[in-house]
Amino acid sequence: MRENVATALAAIVGPEHVSDRLVDRLCYSRDCGPDKAGIPSVVVRPATTEEVSAIVRWANDHRHPLYTRGRATTFLGSGVKDGVILLETTRMNRVERIDTAARLVVAQAGAIWHGIDADLRRDGWELGVPGGGGLFSCTIGGTVAVNATPHGATEYGMTGDHVLALEVVLPTGDVVRTGSWANPASEPIERNANGADLAGPFIGSYGILGIITRVVYRIQRIPECELFRFYAFDEYRDAVEAATGIQGRGAATFLVGLFGGPKPTGEEGDAFLHVVVRDRAVAADARVREAEAICESHRGRPRPAEGTRHYWQEHMYSWLRNTAPGPYYSDRPFFCPEVAGFVSSRGLADAVALFRTMKAEREREFETHGIRVKGVDAYFSRNGAYLWIDTLYDERQPDAWAYGMQLRSEVAERMFTEGRMSPGGLGAGISPHIMPKLGTAYGLLQSMKRMLDPNGILNPGLLIDEEER
Ligand SMILES: Cc1cc2nc3c(=O)[nH]c(=O)nc-3n(C[C@H](O)[C@H](O)[C@H](O)COP(=O)(O)OP(=O)(O)OC[C@H]3O[C@@H](n4cnc5c(N)ncnc54)[C@H](O)[C@@H]3O)c2cc1C
User: Fold this and answer.
1) 403 neighbors 393 (Cβ within 8 angstroms)
2) CA distance linking residue 403 with residue 361, whole number of Å
């Protein structure tokens, strides 16, 4: 069977872009997270929409499950099952059009986020959001498919907010274009044209409804001025209040709160707030002064903001704590069963308190298994906060691995109920803890899946339990 699949796919993309060698198949099973996954039967790397369409058509005709992969930078479980076709998008990496008059870029889905941004920057433009922490390696298609929470979310919103149009291969192999792009006579300039927003269902649904092959994304001029501030607080509730105040005034482009994990090097305090302001020079100055006043009115202490600048400009997570990456991650291979999601700004302090209580209750277990808390950090969005709880454990220790996974389940269950959090990142590891809680919303997603993918070939088992499909 495997040979037949490989031969059929080779006829579509050429034999050099198909592999059924075990060493290749093993490399395409997991994502960056701790979840173990199955091993695909064959890996195929198409270069065009037409090739993707032909592969999907073949898989649908033969009822063969197929899993899409960009650069596998998620932490939440790839969900790859044994025996699937693994379709990898990274040969589809062309930036096809930069149109500064229409303020858009058209890229193939496998183009690397930062690579697109680098092309734009040469002429003083940038993508509508800078991307998330994985921007140096993730694809634009994968990032839209997971609707990643980007840097700059406080002012610019989510990844999906700047999608103007998508080209998608449906599970039958048909190709659809959305928004104004659906009309062959039009340009892809408006998401909300030609009726219902057809891009929406493909944003954040992890590839279960179709394979994105092209993304049309909004671009903007790089702002004239960037200013940075960093504040320490002795009480985390003051930091939350300050951030909420700044958010309410629209005074910052990006606010990142640190509510747990290691303290930034050389700093004292219970919580910390990074403030980034981008604008024209005069406006940026006025906004940063407003942010300073709000922090100080909530007992924030101004601290040197070099780490903030470094973090923003280099997009390196470790700079949130003023450290270079090496010492931060140490010499052990740590894996991170992350739980992350949205909570209202008002509910954030309680969600932080809930995790602090859970950690205190497990102090001895954390010590026994060498569990570390890497961060209890929040990107403030436009309406609330995206809080992520990163615990680290050493995967070489089977007991620590088992404990880490159990801890993720417990944190997810409590955060999604008592903590009133809704996950932003799903994946195979997190979705069982949220989807059944969604009632008719889960039912609607199941109906959409059944309608678009009657044979259940795309990313089977991901987000929707196969038995419930
Ligand atoms: C260091 C680091 C920091 C990160 N920081 C953040 C952060 O700040 N915020 C955040 O939200 N995330 C963050 N992430 C996660 C990461 O940004 C996203 O997971 C990433 O954008 C996904 O892109 P990818 O190409 O790796 O997709 P993959 O991981 O390969 O795929 C993700 C999902 O999308 C599907 N998919 C992939 N491509 C397509 C396609 N073309 N069409 C349809 N479905 C597709 C896959 O089937 C899978 O279900 C970080 C990751 C790393 C490694």
Assistant:
1) yes
2) 14
pLDDT in tens, 134-154: 999 999 999 999 999 999 999
Tell me the pLDDT tens digit for each residue of 103-130. Answer: 999 999 999 999 999 999 999 999 999 9
Ligand 1 binding pocket includes 73 (Cβ within 6 Å): yes
Average pLDDT over residues 365-384: 93
* CA distance linking residue 425 with residue 461, whole number of Å: 16
CA of 140 to the centre of ligand 1 (A): 9
Domain count, the chain: 5
47 CB-side CA count, 13 A: 8
d(CA 411, CA 419): 9
The DSSP annotation for 161-220 comes to GGEEEEEEE-TTS-EEE-GGGGSTTS-S--TT-SSS-SSGGGSSSTTSS-EEEEEEEEEE
Domain span at residue 399 reads: 330-430
The C-alpha atoms of residue 388 and residue 376 are separated, in whole angstroms, by 6
Q: What are phi and psi of 13, to 5 degrees?
A: -110, -5
CATH for 418: 3.30.300
Confidence check: pLDDT of 1 > 50: no
From 153, 188, 221, the end of a domain falls on 221
Mean pLDDT of 440-446: 96
Q: How far is the CA of 302 from the centre of ligand 1 (A)?
A: 35
Q: What is the pTM of this model?
A: 0.96
Ligand 1 atom closest to the Cα of residue 68 is 47
**How many A from CA of 72 to the centre of ligand 1?**
6
